[in-house]
Amino acid sequence: MSDVKSDIQIAREAKMQPINQVLAKINVPDKSTAFSPMGRHIAKINLEYLDTLKDKSEGKLILVTAITPTPAGEGKTTTSVGLNDGLNKIGKKSIVCLREPSLGPSFGMKGGAAGGGYAQVVPMEQINLHFTGDFHAITSAHNLLSALIDNHIYWGNKLDIDLRRIVWKRVMDMNDRSLRSININLGGVANGFPREDGFDITVASEIMAIFCLSNDLKDLEKRIGNITIAYTRDKKPVYAKDLKAHGPMTVLLKDAIRPNVTQTLENNPAIIHGGPFANIAHGCNSVIATKTGLKLADYVVTEAGFGADLGAEKFLDIKCRKSNLKPSCVVIVATIRALKMHGGVAKDDLKNENVEALKKGLVNLERHIENVKKFGLPVAIAVNHFIKDTDSEVKALIDFCENLGVKASLCTHWANGSEGTKELAAHVANLCEKKDAKFNFLYESKTPLFKKIETIAKEIYRADEVIADTKIRDQLKGFEEAGYGELPICVAKTQYSFSTDPNLKGAPTGHALPIREIRLSSGAEFIVVVCGSIMTMPGLPRVPAADSIKLNDKGDIEGLF
After folding, report:
1. Domain with CATH 3.40.50.300 in the chain
2. Which residues are catalytic?
3. Per-residue pLDDT for the chain (561 aa), expressed as one digit of tens each?
4. Which residues contact 359 (CB under 8 A, 6 or more apart)?
5. Exposure check for the chain: N or C terminus, fewer CB within 10 A?
6. How many alpha carbons fall within 13 Å on the CB side of residue 425?
């Protein structure tokens, strides 16, 4: 298969249109009041222009999620781009809304997030590296708050912050396990009071979550002000607004908050904005971006990170709850390769036909279908086709879904672009027009916090119990007494299993959900529940992708994909 082009080759050969021409397709006027070009092929839409769209009707929202990920790959972003191109191909006006890639995975193990094959967003290298600087702005705003905290303590600590109860860590957009737990302010009196601190990755920052859940700049500033940064010696909360931090932090984010527009390989508009991970945060692009798309198009295709147990659940229970968004249908991406891994096949053996292993692994897809239906939404299956998939395997998967009353469409967008998703696009458009969808949340806001955790654990992960010691339970009660009892839950756990054990493939039952710690995100307005061994600052693998990334003699990037 030496004639198969790499993703980066395909991206570099793309015939991109000037961004004003791409925006013209969704009726964004070619005026400086509407958008600001960031080079020839990227633009930021102005908030003032978005204000003029408030009275426009909204399009249909399509959520793309996936089965439980495996090293074989699922192609959720690729399928989101392919579906969007397919909808445009059959005459629908559609926009895809994606998350911005983090530098950590790009130089670590997972790779970028711009799609693949002939279903990509471009310019791919800029998108996967510094893009428009949004993540750098979020990192800077977050660390400004950290600097203000230590500066306040250095100059007398008027707020009586207890150095042992500072809950605000620093962040950076890179995988670096050595920064998880550190000591700071060492070196004598001039450097401040020594204390323990640590780093999370930027995508786990509460600023990232606030950025993605805010409706406008005023909402952003208010939420930043409400961040709980520490507690006093009397255990009373200290907020970012107590340090007057919300003003300057918002200044750093005033341009970043504007949605970014690029294009697919087929020159259809793509909005790429915000990017929290779904295994440690809520895993969705920004509310502003999604609502912008809904005002500008008849259909918006958006993705939620990792499997439906994480990304889709958080999209529906957190993002939709906070923004009044209501999806019209959900697309679950599955690959025969990944399902065979869930059926026990080793990665090196995936090239061989194995219908029995596929059938065994289909329990994973079945559970995700059942879970999504609990939200009252219609489901479609996108079978992301790989070259080695056999006709027998494809038939077994499609027949299985048909017996469940769900249509599975074979999608060849990686090789064929929009031609490969026309069937899926037509089916999804049909599902969106049906009036029988009655979207509902998994739990009510008034449900006690621990009961919310139990509901997610038992209904979505199919755990038998939640393990939480007295300290955790007392913290949850304390949050409720402080007025945070109606906040939704954001579970941080491994993406590789319904359980907290990444080695448990398929659809495990009889397991427990052990809670390691809980964190109050009072600005983002959710409770983070950290389970198992998940880390909010990932490490690099033994052989990181960075080992292969370099500039060649022509000045082109090699090894990124």
Report:
1. 7-132+256-433
2. 76, 78, 99, 110, 278, 306, 386, 414
3. 446 788 888 888 889 999 999 999 999 999 889 999 999 999 999 999 999 999 999 999 999 999 999 987 778 999 999 999 999 999 999 999 999 999 988 888 766 668 888 999 999 889 999 999 999 999 999 999 999 999 999 999 999 999 999 999 999 999 999 999 999 999 999 999 999 999 999 999 999 999 999 999 999 999 999 999 999 999 999 999 999 999 999 999 999 999 999 999 999 999 999 999 888 899 999 999 999 999 999 999 999 989 999 999 999 999 999 999 999 999 999 999 999 999 999 988 999 999 999 999 999 999 999 999 999 999 999 999 999 999 999 999 999 999 999 999 999 999 999 999 999 999 999 999 987 678 999 999 999 999 999 999 999 999 999 999 999 999 999 999 999 999 999 999 999 999 999 999 999 999 999 999 999 999 999 999 999 988 899 999 999 989 989 998 988 888 877
4. 343, 396, 400
5. N
6. 29
Alpha carbon distance 281, 488 (integer Å) = 12
Write the DSSP symbol of residue 248: H
**Residue extent(s) of CATH 3.10.410.10 domains in the chain:** 449-531
Its CATH class, for the domain covering 7-132+256-433, is alpha beta
What are the respective helix, strand and coil percentages of the chain, to the nearest 5? 40, 20, 40
At 178, list the tokens: 């050595």
pTM over 0.85: yes
Output the CA angle 523-524-527, nearest 5 degrees: 100
Q: What is the homologous superfamily of the domain 449-531 according to CATH?
A: Formyltetrahydrofolate synthetase, domain 3 (3.10.410.10)
The yes/no answer on whether domain 135-252 falls in CATH 3.90.550.10 is no
CA 267 – CA 265 distance, rounded (Å): 5
Half-sphere exposure in the Cβ direction for 488 (13 Å, CA): 22
Encoding tokens for residue 523? 């600005």
Cα separation, 510 vs 529, whole angstroms: 20
Give the separation between CA 474 and CA 455, rounded to whole angstroms: 19
Please list the alpha-helical segments (H only) found in 348-469. Answer: 355-373, 391-403, 413-416, 422-433, 449-459
